[in-house]
């Protein structure tokens, strides 16, 4: 599925998988360093303000009531949209970059 035609070719599946790994890594893979840094920084801010890691830690230990009281839901609900946007943008931008790099189709007469 992923082949290297030119130096600029970026595999869309690899961009998707990097973004699934962590928010912003798919953008770093494609060379969008500023946008990737903005997404990565916003992920860290959202994660810290929602205290998601502490809530996950408590829920893994079976203390669901403590996890409920620790988690800030207003910031916690922002996290999935940021995660989904990062995946969507990395995948679609890789498709767009590869489409621009393809040779134009010859007209058949």
Outline the structure in words:
The protein has 109 residues and is mainly α. It has a domain at 23-98. Helix content is 72%, strand content 0%. Helix 1 (12-21) runs antiparallel to helix 7 (78-101), helix 3 runs antiparallel to helix 7 (78-101) and helix 4 runs antiparallel to helix 5. The model has no long low-confidence stretch (mean pLDDT 85).
Q: Helical content, roughly?
A: over 70%
Q: What is the tally of beta strands?
A: 0
* CA gyration radius, whole angstroms: 19 Å
Span between termini = 31 Å
Strand portion: under 5%
How large is the count of helical segments?
7
Query: What number is the mean pLDDT?
Result: 85
Shape: elongated
Sketch the major β-sheet.
none
Task: Return the string of H and E elements.
Answer: HHHHHHH
Structural class: mainly alpha
Low-confidence stretches: none
Question: What's the topology here?
Answer:
Blueprint: H1 12-21, H2 25-30, H3 33-50, H4 52-60, H5 64-70, H6 73-76, H7 78-101
Helix pairs in contact: 1-7, 3-7, 4-5
Summed up, what is this model?
The chain has 109 residues and is mainly alpha-helical. It is built from seven helices and no strands. 72% of the residues lie in helices and 0% in strands.
